[in-house]
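Q&A log
Question type: sequence-to-structure
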Amino acid sequence: MGLVLTIAFHVALGLFFSRFLTGYAAVTLVALVLLLRTEFHPSARVAEPVADRLAQGLRQRHHPSRG
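Response status: OK
Response body:
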């Protein structure tokens, strides 16, 4: 959700400044399109199981009963 809000903020910023800083707006919009494409591409989901396993390992390592 934070990424989506960040993207929305930068799109709004880019559109606001597009009248004054057309180059900045163009680069920002292209970068945001690439970020969204990467974020929602099916291959981005490959890392999720790895992150889940890492989080599970960290929870086991720092479990209070294992003092």
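Response note: Helices lie at 2-17, 22-40, 47-61.
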